[in-house]
């Protein structure tokens, strides 16, 4: 079968395009280093397209030329050598549109942007949006991780309460199974703030509420008794591991994120961690298998020293890791963007 045609941008390029939301602390954290290292960059807020920004290109044979207009800046496509694909957001459209018109505009804008990303196939992506989507299934990750040598907790993914009850009976006694959602779930709290549903051990009260999953399928796993939790950040071939001492405090033993965010004294200790060479290589290969240049992997080291894979976030958070440990993740990202951008 012949390979698909490769589009060629007109000339060599030097600019890093940052695709992000209007407010993104990760981008704010990295931009000063890009400036310090003399790496030209521009932000492109997807939420502003098409109402506040415009774009267009021409195709002549296998050559493409065009530009994005962001404010007063015209970003020529042929200038773009690297794209840091941080975050997307829904288009902010003018008020007063009918539902049908709004759906049409969103459909056409999405198709245009997806086509544009395909035409930028000669640039370095951190990471390509199609690779990010392909890597976003938590269930598929568990199967794939086994192929790279990771241990994986026994898992049941279902909206059938009876199936989950049978799984709990097979796995063990009360509290030996955890629940977590596929995507972040926010719930109203008595103080009118939004609370996050973290990983939860299923006690008897939780088991009595299993009928609630009929309309919201959940992920249920055998509980692993932890020695420490690991957050492993992979950028290209560079691996940075952070140990999180979640067992130091009662509130964070099931999920380290369950500390009180308004009280820094409850934040579990973080430190840089030396992964065994084989485990670091498995992390590299897992991320690369999806075509990703970036991945944030959550692991557990159990009481006997065995490593367990929990999940891969193909576009996860990492600034807090660098701030807590000093691991040079930001510098590694800039190295990739600079090294591939002339």
Describe the structure.
The protein is an alpha+beta fold. It contains nine helices and 19 strands. It has helices at residues 25-36, 99-119, 129-134, 138-147, 161-171, 204-207, 277-289, 319-325, 329-339; strands at residues 8-9, 15-20, 41-45, 54-60, 63-70, 73-76, 80-85, 124-126, 155-158, 177-180, 186-188, 194-196, 200-201, 218-222, 226-235, 238-244, 270-273, 294-302, 307-313. The strands form five sheets. The chain has a five-stranded antiparallel β-sheet with strand order 17-16-15-18-19. Strands 1, 4, 5 and 6 form a four-stranded mixed β-sheet that branches. A hairpin with a 2-residue loop joins strand 4 and strand 5 (63-70). Helix 1 packs across helix 9 (329-339). The chain is globular.
Quick description:
This protein is α+β, with helices and mostly antiparallel strands and 342 residues long.
Structural category is alpha+beta
Question: How would you spell out the order of helices and strands?
Answer: EEHEEEEEHEHHEHEEEEHEEEEHEEHH
Percent of sequence in beta strands = 25-35%
Side-by-side strand order of the widest sheet: 17-16-15-18-19
Q: Low-confidence runs (pLDDT<50, min 5 residues)? A: 1-13
